[in-house]
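Bumping with the actual sequence this time:
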Amino acid sequence: MSLAERLQSLFVALAAVAGLAAGLILPIGPAAEHVVLPALLVMLTAVFVQMDAAHVGEVRRAGTLVVTSLLLNFVLTPALAWALGAGLLGGAPDLRIGLLLLLVTPCTDWYLVFTATARGHTGIAAALLPVNLVLQLVLLPVYVLLLGGRAAMVDTGTLAGSVLLVLAVPLALALALRWVSARFGGAAWRERHVTGPAGHLVLPLLYAAVFAMFAWQARTVLAHGADLLALLAPLAVFFTALPLVATGLSHLLGLPPEQRVTLTMTTTARNSPIALAVAVAAFPDRPLIAVALVVGPLVELPVLALLAQLVRVRRPAAANTTAPLRGTRGHGSGR
């Protein structure tokens, strides 16, 4: 893991503080508004272009892990997100939706870095990426509309269109870019000129989006700073409960050490950049939802770094593991 990846949580915080200061001092809010969504869309395209569908075949060798991961990510986690929002954020509908968007979107990139750091099975972890991505695309509107309740206050068409914009469009562009570059330049040329450089774009684009978000909504953050602290309690519960559940289940199911690490990481890491992009697109008139999503990585990144050390396999990585995708975030998002 590079130094930039290790310090990502710090850089996200610095980008937020710098954007907040710039938004309060300079009249850049209206211009910053037009930077957030494009930066996130380009960032997601850069993330997706690094995904290799060839890994998908690995899931057949780890059926128990895959089924358990899907149940934890797409059944238990949404139920827990709803319970935490209703129980701890009942009087703050925007924070409830922000928390829900964050928690129901499992990570589709940066958890690979922490899986590799903890000597987990990165081949299976990479194979789960497209599965998690497709399920997010299908289920995210359902979760928001069913679990968000009155707090959501958004129609189905708007939400579905926003999810398609921030997930389907970057994914389609990334797939097209991968195919064209491999078709006309070859796999090695694609790695050197497309997927490699794309990896170096992800973090700067995330920081740019966070900076622009806080510059755009500086007054909102100033007015609701104390409210944002209310997110710390549900986030603390989530990032404590999920690793414990995943680790306990992996031992109960008798998974190999490398697969135990993979299950813990894929069920703990969240996809804050995708959640942020959906919030900006679907709730443009409710900026506190998007602002709340920036709090998530500030808690998540240190948790993942600590978790990678706690669950680390205490022997050389198994020979059948594969290297993580180049340029994935050291987070989260992000990230």
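The tokens above came from a reply further down the thread. The two ends are 15 Å apart (CA to CA).
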